[in-house]
Amino acid sequence: MMYLDSVVDQAEDRVTNHMRTISDFIDLRRNNTGVRPCLFIGTMHLNISDTIREHRFLVELEVCLYHHGSLECETDPRTVHRT
């Protein structure tokens, strides 16, 4: 729902001529650029083993995209617990 909520928020901003701060705008855009849905959709058809999916670099990428909304992430992948 984050994606759709963000798209609606951006549309409301346009209609009301609301100007966000740069930081607020970047946070909003992180949620509606489509990266998160594409990451899932783009890998659905691939037969990727759990060993590969759980590689620390891919886990780090997933954590950064889904939990932090950014690729600028310094999460230690060894502390990440997948759900």
Give the N-terminus to C-terminus distance in angstroms.
18 Å
Main pleated sheet? none
Per the principal axes of the C-alpha atoms, what is the gross shape?
A: elongated
Are there runs of 5+ residues with pLDDT below 50, and where? none
Structural class: mainly alpha
Mean pLDDT: 76
Which short descriptors sum up this protein?
mainly alpha; 83 residues; 64% helix
Give an overview of the whole structure.
With 83 residues, this protein is an all-alpha fold. The chain has two domains: 1-32, no CATH class; 34-83, no CATH class. Helix content is 64%, strand content 0%. It has five helices and no strands. The protein has helices at residues 2-16, 22-32, 35-44, 50-53, 56-68. Helix 1 (2-16) packs across helix 2 (22-32). The mean pLDDT is 76.
Give a quick summary of the entry.
The protein is mostly helical and 83 residues long. Helices cover 64% and strands 0% of the residues.
Write the layout of secondary structure elements.
Layout: H1 2-16, H2 22-32, H3 35-44, H4 50-53, H5 56-68
Helix pairs in contact: 1-2
